[in-house]
Amino acid sequence: MLPADASRSSSSSRSSRISSTSASDSEASGSTSSTETTSRLDPRIISDAIIGLSDGLTVPFALTAGLSTLSSTRVVIFAGLAELTAGAISMGLGGYLAAKSEEESYKATLNDTRRAVACGFVDAVTSIKEVFEPYDLPPALSEDLAYHLSKSPTLVQFLMQFQHNTPEPAATRAITSGLTIACGYFLGGLLPLLPYFMVGQDEVMLALRWSFVFMAVSLFAFGYSKTCFVSGWRGGKNVWAGSRAGLQMMLVGGAAATCAMSLVQAFDSLAS
């Protein structure tokens, strides 16, 4: 091959490598940007919503079913709304206080870690090696990483994240948790009350039957959705798992309503 041909072939190969590299970089940047633009809900928000909805779909339903034996829609509506309000406030405060306690625990651990690192109570290199030990890294690489991180200004954050397993909570975590649980409880508990607004004052048993229908559908849909949201919506295995969770929610809600009705009837008979 002539030198001119060799230079042309080498330059063409270099240009092809550069073009392929730029194309792969553009694809990677495009996938990264698409990933960044795709927003997902915080799993903690989903967990709080499930807690609020699960209690809201069960407790007020059992209460309204039990009070239906008193044969007055006004009693059911007023007592149900009172329970919804009190329950939503109580559940929301519980979620808020739980999130605040997590935040205080994180701050206490962070301050202890900062003092230990500043005073030399913690051997940074040894602590970092212990973090990497389960990953079976080569000793030389582990030494280099430990030495580099021990001199890094982000050493405290590294120890908090990987040694103490305590990621920093969001600043609005407590308020978001409380509001999510409270709203989930109120919305879930409002469903069994809706039929009582649509019938006459003496048609409480008709409202009860419609309430059972509403709640059977709602409990099944809730159990199915919360399971398939995690495991997936497609495939026979996922469909069966969601259906089983929906049936379990229906059984729990039905059992709670039956027990409440039986107790109210028993107390009413004893009082009369």
Automatic annotation (TrEMBL):
Keywords: Membrane, Transmembrane, Transmembrane helix. This is Vacuolar iron transporter Ccc1. Its main location: membrane. Residues 1-38 have a biased composition (Low complexity). It is a multi-pass membrane protein. It comes from the Eukaryota. One of its GO terms (biological process) is intracellular manganese ion homeostasis. Belongs to the CCC1 family. GO terms for cellular component: endomembrane system. The keyword Nucleotide-binding does not apply. Residues 1-39 are annotated as: Disordered. It is found in: Endomembrane system. The lineage of its organism: Eukaryota, Fungi, Dikarya, Ascomycota, Pezizomycotina. It holds the Pfam family VIT1. The chain crosses the membrane at residues 76-99, 179-198, 204-224, 245-267. It comes from Dothistroma septosporum (strain NZE10 / CBS 128990) (Red band needle blight fungus). GO terms for molecular function: manganese ion transmembrane transporter activity.
